[in-house]
Amino acid sequence: MNLFEKEELIRQAAEDFESQSPEALLSWAVERFPNITLACSFGAEDVVLVDMLQKVSPKTDIFYLDTNVHFQETYETRDRLQQHYGLEFVQVLPKLTLEEQAQQFGEELWKTAPNQCCNIRKVDPLTDILKNYDAWITGIRRDQAPTRANAKKVEYDVKFGLVKFNPLASWTSEDVWNYIRSNNIIYNPLHDRNYPSIGCEHCTRPVAAGEDPRAGRWAGFEKTECGLHK
């Protein structure tokens, strides 16, 4: 398939699946792109996609970026999901340990240079793992942040050079939680403690009533994304 044919396929799929269910898009995605993977952060959207994917294509790889500084509740959610579905998430680690990072760039880099820390512990590892695939699936939604407002359900990810599927792009937070409750899905208990968006422990705080759902990420910095979805 040449570039023009791929672009046309993506454009048509984005149009066709805009009004269809996430499950329908997932089914098409894994059939059309067998060498596909799901990125899981163990947040609400991603546990929904894990459940859907287990019903559609249980052998499809699901990976997570292990920054070594996730909340304990996040690791426990991972373990519960693995046990429940009988699967093994692919662990993707940074090239540098926390100790090596501190030696090279100083202690608690996330406090002084969060973009650099995200690049080391998230973006670079993601770049490495995605080189093994032709397409990837994410849990981003349009109403999560202005930077995601124009996300299509199917698009070409220029940054990583592969097809990107966003099955929940048109869903609201209410849609996500309705699915979780209706299907009794395992989810991160931090969501019940005012953490609508959960990242690394040092860079995530609870969100107060009336605040933007992503206000708890990198509080005090002009930063709203870790760089995975730009």
UniProtKB/TrEMBL annotation:
Gene3D superfamilies: HUPs (3.40.50.620)
Keyword line: Cytoplasm, Iron, Iron-sulfur, Metal-binding, Oxidoreductase
InterPro entries attached to this UniProt entry: APS_reductase, PAPS/APS_Rdtase, PAPS_reduct_dom, Rossmann-like_a/b/a_fold
Annotated EC: 1.8.4.10
Molecular-function annotations in GO: phosphoadenylyl-sulfate reductase (thioredoxin) activity
Cofactor: [4Fe-4S] cluster
One Pfam family linked to the record: PAPS_reduct
Main localization (coarse): cytoplasm
Family statement: Belongs to the PAPS reductase family. CysH subfamily.
Protein name: Adenosine 5'-phosphosulfate reductase
Native species: Paenibacillus ehimensis
Gene: cysH
